[in-house]
Amino acid sequence: MADDPLFLIIVVACLVVAGILVWGISVFGSGGDSKKSNKLMQLRIAAQFVAVVLIVAFAWFRMGGN
């Protein structure tokens, strides 16, 4: 499974989601601009949507695409 390119893309997408989450929490926790933190959380939701779509596509292709 680790040699599948789609799997590697999914891992990168999940790491991007985690990175955005940590970045948004750190901005919010440091008392920074709440608008920036809110925009980062919106970006996280979009990235999370992409990651979930990739995971579902991976599962569908692994099942044979039926």
TrEMBL record:
The chain crosses the membrane at residues 6-29, 41-61. Pfam families: HIG_1_N. The keyword Membrane applies. Coiled coil: none annotated. This is Twin transmembrane helix small protein. Keywords: Membrane, Transmembrane, Transmembrane helix. Residues 1-66 form the HIG1 domain. NCBIfam families: twin_helix. It comes from the Bacteria. It comes from Thalassorhabdomicrobium marinisediminis.
